[in-house]
Amino acid sequence: MKASLNFLTVGVLIALAACSTQEVKRDTPAPAAVVPPPAAQPDKTSASGQNPAMTLDKGGKKLHLVRIMDGLACKNTAQGAQGSFLIYAYPEDIERIKRERGDKVFAEFSDRIQAFSADVLQQAVNATNLDDNPFALGQDEAQEALAKDLSVNFQRAVAPAIAKFTQETTLTIDITPFTPSLQFYRQGCQAALSEPVAPETSVVKP
To answer: Which of 72, 82, 146, 189 has the least C-beta neighbours within 10 A?
Structure first.
């Protein structure tokens, strides 16, 4: 099946390249032998309830949330998953790259991030068991278990892609699913994937 993970505006990091303190905008539908880095940890002090963490610690660096992608992938015509995916980047890397290579390079970075994120989302959905869980105590528990499984599968699949991207671009990033946003299809996924995407312009403020 084909994953849908697209940006309405051009560029994941262009806005941040222009100003590293700019508001974070939400966009709607995101073989090298590289050892994946240790898993990044969201800054729990900057996360509240249904709001994503604005920063994330990775390898001793504090990454900032720069963009939110919405994605949908189908495992088959019936089953699939959709949700939001958080893109974090290291501001000092962005400023350095902007000085050395200019702003235009971030459009290329945007395309690369979008492409491998869609592939990773498809891999994660394919690896997640979306069948009904007969042992779940209720719908909430089943939803929580599915969200956890998909998040683990996404992080496992995205780690080598991020490591390769960082190695080739010198830009430290991370991409994580926003688990409260995840929704799962047990029927009608292919129909949802075929529907046109309605624009959204919501803004997440630091």
So the answer is: 146
CA-derived radius of gyration, the chain? 17
Structure tokens at 164: 């390769």
- pLDDT over threshold 90, residue 6: no
| Structural domains of the chain, count | 1
pTM of the model: 0.76
Closest CA to 20 of 101, 83, 84, 92: 92
- Asked whether the beta carbons of 98 and 57 are under 8 A apart, the reply is no
Total Cβ atoms within 10 A of residue 171: 18
Q: What is the pLDDT of residues 75-112, one digit of tens each?
A: 999 999 999 999 999 999 999 999 999 999 999 999 89
Query: What pLDDT shows up at residue 117?
Result: 94
Spatial CA neighbour of 80 closest among 115, 149, 27, 128: 128
Strand 41-42 to 24-26 pairing: unpaired
Which among 99, 128, 101 has a CA at the least distance from the CA of 20?
A: 99
Position 84: which residue type? Answer: S
Instruction: Tell me, yes or no, whether 49 lies in a domain.
Output: no
Domain annotation covers residue 17: yes
What is the Cα–Cα distance from 59 to 51, expressed in whole angstroms?
23
Looking at per-residue pLDDT, the higher value among 139 and 42 belongs to 139
User: Which token pair is 22?
Assistant: 């700019």
Could you list the residue range(s) of the whole structural domain that residue 111 is in? 4-28+54-193
Is residue 198 scored above 80 in pLDDT? no
